[in-house]
Amino acid sequence: MSDQRNKPAVSMAEIRPELERLHRRGFLRGALSLGASLGSLTLLTGCDLSTHSGVDGALEAILCFDDRVQAALFSRKRLAKTYPASAITRPFRFNAYYAEWQVRPVPDNWVLSVAGLVADRRPWTLPALMALPQQGQITRHICIEGWSQIGQWSGVPLGAFLRRVGADLSARYVYFKCFDGYSTSIDMASALQPQTILALDFEEKPLAPQWGAPLRLRIPTKLGFKSAKNLEAIEVTNKYPGGYWENRGYDWFAGV
Ligand SMILES: Nc1nc2c(c(=O)[nH]1)N[C@H]1C(S)=C(S)[C@@H](COP(=O)(O)O)O[C@H]1N2
Ligand SMILES: [Mo]
Predict the structure, then answer these.
(1) What does pTM read for this prediction?
(2) pLDDT digit string (tens) for 208-250?
Protein backbone atom coordinates (compact mmCIF):
# COMPACT_ATOMS: atom_id res chain seq x y z
CA MET A 1 0.00 0.00 0.00
CA SER A 2 2.65 2.52 1.00
CA ASP A 3 4.67 1.69 -2.13
CA GLN A 4 1.69 2.52 -4.29
CA ARG A 5 1.13 5.66 -2.28
CA ASN A 6 4.62 6.90 -2.96
CA LYS A 7 4.56 6.00 -6.62
CA PRO A 8 1.37 6.88 -8.47
CA ALA A 9 0.77 4.25 -11.16
CA VAL A 10 -0.11 6.83 -13.80
CA SER A 11 1.41 10.15 -14.78
CA MET A 12 0.15 13.47 -13.49
CA ALA A 13 -0.76 14.53 -17.04
CA GLU A 14 -3.08 11.55 -17.28
CA ILE A 15 -4.94 12.29 -14.06
CA ARG A 16 -4.91 16.09 -14.12
CA PRO A 17 -8.39 16.41 -15.72
CA GLU A 18 -9.76 14.13 -13.02
CA LEU A 19 -8.03 16.08 -10.26
CA GLU A 20 -9.49 19.27 -11.67
CA ARG A 21 -12.93 17.69 -11.73
CA LEU A 22 -12.59 16.58 -8.09
CA HIS A 23 -11.42 20.04 -7.19
CA ARG A 24 -14.40 21.69 -8.89
CA ARG A 25 -16.71 19.42 -6.95
CA GLY A 26 -15.12 20.46 -3.68
CA PHE A 27 -13.24 17.25 -2.86
CA LEU A 28 -9.79 18.79 -2.81
CA ARG A 29 -10.48 22.19 -1.29
CA GLY A 30 -8.99 21.42 2.11
CA ALA A 31 -6.23 19.36 0.64
CA LEU A 32 -5.04 22.03 -1.78
CA SER A 33 -4.41 24.53 0.97
CA LEU A 34 -2.46 21.84 2.78
CA GLY A 35 -0.46 21.39 -0.39
CA ALA A 36 1.09 24.78 0.30
CA SER A 37 3.34 23.35 2.99
CA LEU A 38 5.09 20.54 1.19
CA GLY A 39 7.76 20.23 3.84
CA SER A 40 5.37 19.22 6.59
CA LEU A 41 3.58 16.85 4.25
CA THR A 42 6.86 15.07 3.62
CA LEU A 43 7.21 14.57 7.34
CA LEU A 44 3.65 13.37 7.70
CA THR A 45 3.56 10.93 4.82
CA GLY A 46 7.10 9.88 4.14
CA CYS A 47 6.63 10.91 0.51
CA ASP A 48 9.82 12.22 -1.05
CA LEU A 49 8.72 15.39 -2.78
CA SER A 50 12.19 16.84 -3.38
CA THR A 51 12.08 16.02 -7.10
CA HIS A 52 8.71 17.68 -7.59
CA SER A 53 7.87 21.33 -7.84
CA GLY A 54 5.08 23.68 -8.78
CA VAL A 55 1.52 22.51 -9.29
CA ASP A 56 2.50 18.93 -10.06
CA GLY A 57 4.45 18.78 -6.83
CA ALA A 58 1.51 20.16 -4.88
CA LEU A 59 -0.92 17.75 -6.49
CA GLU A 60 1.39 14.83 -5.98
CA ALA A 61 1.70 15.80 -2.33
CA ILE A 62 -2.07 15.59 -2.05
CA LEU A 63 -2.02 12.16 -3.58
CA CYS A 64 0.52 11.11 -0.99
CA PHE A 65 -1.52 12.75 1.70
CA ASP A 66 -5.06 11.67 1.02
CA ASP A 67 -5.68 7.95 0.52
CA ARG A 68 -9.29 8.51 -0.36
CA VAL A 69 -8.63 11.00 -3.10
CA GLN A 70 -5.97 8.69 -4.42
CA ALA A 71 -8.34 5.76 -4.32
CA ALA A 72 -10.94 7.77 -6.20
CA LEU A 73 -8.35 8.41 -8.88
CA PHE A 74 -6.73 5.02 -9.11
CA SER A 75 -9.23 2.40 -8.10
CA ARG A 76 -10.37 1.95 -11.67
CA LYS A 77 -6.86 0.76 -12.52
CA ARG A 78 -5.87 -1.08 -9.36
CA LEU A 79 -6.89 -4.73 -9.52
CA ALA A 80 -7.48 -7.17 -6.70
CA LYS A 81 -5.37 -10.35 -6.84
CA THR A 82 -6.98 -13.31 -8.58
CA TYR A 83 -6.40 -17.00 -7.76
CA PRO A 84 -6.49 -20.40 -9.50
CA ALA A 85 -9.52 -22.68 -9.05
CA SER A 86 -7.42 -24.93 -6.79
CA ALA A 87 -7.29 -22.11 -4.21
CA ILE A 88 -11.08 -21.90 -3.71
CA THR A 89 -12.01 -22.31 -0.03
CA ARG A 90 -14.27 -25.27 0.72
CA PRO A 91 -16.53 -25.28 2.56
CA PHE A 92 -17.25 -21.61 1.94
CA ARG A 93 -18.78 -19.90 4.93
CA PHE A 94 -21.80 -17.68 4.93
CA ASN A 95 -22.02 -14.54 7.02
CA ALA A 96 -24.82 -12.11 7.78
CA TYR A 97 -25.75 -9.45 10.30
CA TYR A 98 -28.33 -11.68 11.92
CA ALA A 99 -26.98 -14.37 14.21
CA GLU A 100 -29.52 -17.13 13.67
CA TRP A 101 -30.47 -18.84 10.45
CA GLN A 102 -32.92 -16.38 8.94
CA VAL A 103 -31.92 -16.61 5.33
CA ARG A 104 -34.68 -15.03 3.29
CA PRO A 105 -35.98 -16.97 0.31
CA VAL A 106 -36.04 -15.00 -2.93
CA PRO A 107 -39.37 -13.12 -3.03
CA ASP A 108 -41.90 -14.24 -5.65
CA ASN A 109 -41.71 -12.13 -8.79
CA TRP A 110 -38.30 -10.79 -7.76
CA VAL A 111 -37.01 -7.85 -9.81
CA LEU A 112 -34.05 -5.53 -9.32
CA SER A 113 -35.23 -1.93 -8.94
CA VAL A 114 -33.11 0.91 -10.30
CA ALA A 115 -33.50 4.36 -8.75
CA GLY A 116 -31.96 7.80 -8.53
CA LEU A 117 -29.73 9.43 -11.13
CA VAL A 118 -30.35 7.01 -14.01
CA ALA A 119 -32.03 7.60 -17.36
CA ASP A 120 -33.81 4.22 -17.52
CA ARG A 121 -35.48 3.21 -14.23
CA ARG A 122 -37.19 0.09 -15.54
CA PRO A 123 -36.76 -2.85 -13.14
CA TRP A 124 -34.67 -5.85 -14.23
CA THR A 125 -35.82 -9.46 -14.22
CA LEU A 126 -33.39 -12.30 -13.65
CA PRO A 127 -33.49 -13.53 -17.28
CA ALA A 128 -32.76 -9.97 -18.47
CA LEU A 129 -29.73 -9.78 -16.17
CA MET A 130 -28.59 -13.23 -17.29
CA ALA A 131 -28.73 -12.08 -20.91
CA LEU A 132 -26.14 -9.33 -20.30
CA PRO A 133 -22.41 -10.12 -20.87
CA GLN A 134 -21.01 -11.97 -17.83
CA GLN A 135 -17.57 -11.96 -16.24
CA GLY A 136 -16.05 -14.33 -13.69
CA GLN A 137 -13.49 -13.94 -10.92
CA ILE A 138 -11.72 -16.01 -8.28
CA THR A 139 -10.83 -13.54 -5.54
CA ARG A 140 -10.39 -13.31 -1.80
CA HIS A 141 -13.28 -12.19 0.33
CA ILE A 142 -12.04 -10.51 3.52
CA CYS A 143 -14.39 -9.98 6.45
CA ILE A 144 -13.76 -7.18 8.94
CA GLU A 145 -14.18 -9.77 11.72
CA GLY A 146 -10.79 -11.20 10.81
CA TRP A 147 -11.32 -14.14 8.47
CA SER A 148 -11.05 -14.53 4.74
CA GLN A 149 -11.87 -17.08 2.06
CA ILE A 150 -11.33 -17.41 -1.67
CA GLY A 151 -14.42 -17.77 -3.80
CA GLN A 152 -15.54 -17.86 -7.41
CA TRP A 153 -18.27 -15.56 -8.63
CA SER A 154 -19.53 -14.49 -12.01
CA GLY A 155 -22.03 -11.95 -13.20
CA VAL A 156 -22.54 -8.58 -14.81
CA PRO A 157 -19.83 -5.93 -14.35
CA LEU A 158 -21.50 -3.14 -12.37
CA GLY A 159 -19.88 -0.50 -14.62
CA ALA A 160 -21.46 -2.07 -17.72
CA PHE A 161 -24.82 -2.22 -15.94
CA LEU A 162 -24.63 1.42 -14.85
CA ARG A 163 -23.79 2.49 -18.41
CA ARG A 164 -26.61 0.35 -19.75
CA VAL A 165 -29.23 2.08 -17.55
CA GLY A 166 -27.82 5.51 -18.35
CA ALA A 167 -26.55 6.24 -14.83
CA ASP A 168 -24.95 9.60 -14.12
CA LEU A 169 -21.36 8.33 -13.83
CA SER A 170 -20.27 11.60 -12.22
CA ALA A 171 -22.60 10.98 -9.26
CA ARG A 172 -20.82 10.27 -5.98
CA TYR A 173 -22.48 7.13 -4.62
CA VAL A 174 -24.10 3.86 -5.55
CA TYR A 175 -26.41 2.51 -2.86
CA PHE A 176 -27.49 -1.14 -2.52
CA LYS A 177 -30.67 -2.19 -0.73
CA CYS A 178 -31.24 -5.84 0.18
CA PHE A 179 -34.45 -7.69 0.91
CA ASP A 180 -33.11 -9.08 4.21
CA GLY A 181 -32.97 -5.52 5.57
CA TYR A 182 -29.26 -5.01 4.86
CA SER A 183 -27.82 -2.10 2.88
CA THR A 184 -24.47 -0.59 1.89
CA SER A 185 -23.02 2.02 -0.45
CA ILE A 186 -19.82 2.61 -2.44
CA ASP A 187 -18.16 5.48 -4.29
CA MET A 188 -18.64 5.73 -8.05
CA ALA A 189 -14.96 5.06 -8.88
CA SER A 190 -15.18 1.73 -7.04
CA ALA A 191 -18.48 0.96 -8.76
CA LEU A 192 -16.73 1.36 -12.12
CA GLN A 193 -13.68 -0.71 -11.17
CA PRO A 194 -13.68 -3.63 -13.64
CA GLN A 195 -13.78 -6.37 -10.96
CA THR A 196 -16.88 -4.94 -9.28
CA ILE A 197 -19.67 -7.24 -10.45
CA LEU A 198 -23.33 -7.96 -9.87
CA ALA A 199 -22.85 -11.67 -9.23
CA LEU A 200 -25.49 -14.19 -10.30
CA ASP A 201 -23.37 -17.32 -9.90
CA PHE A 202 -21.17 -18.82 -7.21
CA GLU A 203 -18.85 -21.65 -8.25
CA GLU A 204 -20.57 -21.66 -11.65
CA LYS A 205 -24.04 -22.33 -10.23
CA PRO A 206 -26.83 -19.85 -9.44
CA LEU A 207 -26.26 -18.24 -6.02
CA ALA A 208 -27.85 -20.10 -3.10
CA PRO A 209 -29.96 -17.92 -0.75
CA GLN A 210 -27.34 -17.74 2.03
CA TRP A 211 -24.75 -16.48 -0.45
CA GLY A 212 -27.03 -13.81 -1.80
CA ALA A 213 -29.57 -15.25 -4.24
CA PRO A 214 -30.58 -14.22 -6.74
CA LEU A 215 -28.13 -11.32 -7.13
CA ARG A 216 -25.32 -9.88 -5.00
CA LEU A 217 -22.62 -7.31 -5.30
CA ARG A 218 -19.10 -8.76 -5.40
CA ILE A 219 -16.40 -6.15 -4.89
CA PRO A 220 -12.95 -7.62 -4.18
CA THR A 221 -11.27 -4.24 -3.58
CA LYS A 222 -13.29 -3.71 -0.40
CA LEU A 223 -14.02 -5.52 2.85
CA GLY A 224 -16.70 -8.20 2.78
CA PHE A 225 -19.46 -6.10 4.28
CA LYS A 226 -19.57 -4.04 1.08
CA SER A 227 -20.47 -7.11 -0.99
CA ALA A 228 -24.22 -6.77 -0.47
CA LYS A 229 -26.20 -9.99 -0.90
CA ASN A 230 -29.88 -10.54 -1.77
CA LEU A 231 -30.14 -7.30 -3.72
CA GLU A 232 -33.49 -5.68 -4.38
CA ALA A 233 -32.56 -2.14 -5.42
CA ILE A 234 -29.66 -0.07 -6.72
CA GLU A 235 -29.72 3.71 -6.41
CA VAL A 236 -27.31 6.25 -7.91
CA THR A 237 -27.14 9.38 -5.76
CA ASN A 238 -25.12 12.38 -4.64
CA LYS A 239 -26.56 12.25 -1.13
CA TYR A 240 -24.48 10.13 1.30
CA PRO A 241 -26.51 6.93 1.67
CA GLY A 242 -24.66 5.13 4.51
CA GLY A 243 -25.49 1.48 5.09
CA TYR A 244 -26.29 -1.11 7.75
CA TRP A 245 -22.77 -1.43 9.23
CA GLU A 246 -21.65 2.04 8.13
CA ASN A 247 -24.45 3.54 10.26
CA ARG A 248 -23.11 1.49 13.20
CA GLY A 249 -19.59 2.83 12.97
CA TYR A 250 -17.75 0.78 10.32
CA ASP A 251 -15.45 2.85 8.10
CA TRP A 252 -17.48 3.82 5.04
CA PHE A 253 -14.68 3.54 2.47
CA ALA A 254 -13.41 0.15 3.73
CA GLY A 255 -11.07 -0.64 0.86
CA VAL A 256 -8.81 0.69 -1.84
N1 LIG B 1 -27.83 -8.78 2.37
C2 LIG B 1 -26.72 -8.93 3.12
N3 LIG B 1 -25.53 -8.81 2.51
C4 LIG B 1 -24.39 -8.97 3.23
C5 LIG B 1 -24.43 -9.23 4.61
C6 LIG B 1 -25.72 -9.34 5.22
O7 LIG B 1 -25.87 -9.57 6.43
N8 LIG B 1 -26.83 -9.20 4.43
N9 LIG B 1 -23.26 -9.39 5.31
C10 LIG B 1 -22.02 -8.86 4.73
C11 LIG B 1 -20.81 -9.36 5.36
S12 LIG B 1 -20.35 -8.66 6.85
C13 LIG B 1 -20.00 -10.30 4.77
S14 LIG B 1 -18.52 -10.79 5.44
C15 LIG B 1 -20.42 -10.94 3.50
C16 LIG B 1 -20.46 -12.45 3.65
O17 LIG B 1 -20.61 -13.06 2.40
P18 LIG B 1 -20.74 -14.64 2.30
O19 LIG B 1 -21.95 -15.03 3.12
O20 LIG B 1 -20.87 -14.94 0.86
O21 LIG B 1 -19.49 -15.22 2.92
O22 LIG B 1 -21.69 -10.50 3.04
C23 LIG B 1 -21.95 -9.15 3.24
N24 LIG B 1 -23.20 -8.86 2.58
MO1 LIG C 1 -18.17 -9.25 7.13
Answers:
(1) 0.75
(2) 999 999 999 999 999 999 999 999 999 999 999 999 999 999 9
Q: Is the CB of 182 within 6 Å of ligand 1?
A: yes
Q: Which of 229, 244, 247, 251 to mutate to test the pocket of ligand 1 (most atoms within 8 A of CB)?
A: 229
Q: Is the CB of 227 under 6 A from ligand 1?
A: yes
Q: Could you give the CA distance from residue 154 to residue 205 in angstroms, rounded to a whole number?
A: 9
What stretches in the chain show pLDDT beneath 70? Answer: 1-77, 101
Q: Is the CB of 152 under 6 A from ligand 1?
A: no
CATH number corresponding to 85-248: 3.90.420.10
Distance of alpha carbon 244 from alpha carbon 93, whole angstroms: 20
Strand 197-202 to strand 135-143: parallel, antiparallel, or no bridges (unpaired)? unpaired
Residue 173: which residues within 8 A CB-CB, separation 6 or more?
Answer: 185, 186, 187, 188, 236, 237, 238, 239, 240, 241
Report the interhelical angle of 54-65 vs 38-45 (nearest 10°). Answer: 30
Domain edges within the chain: 12-73, 85-248
pLDDT of 1: 34
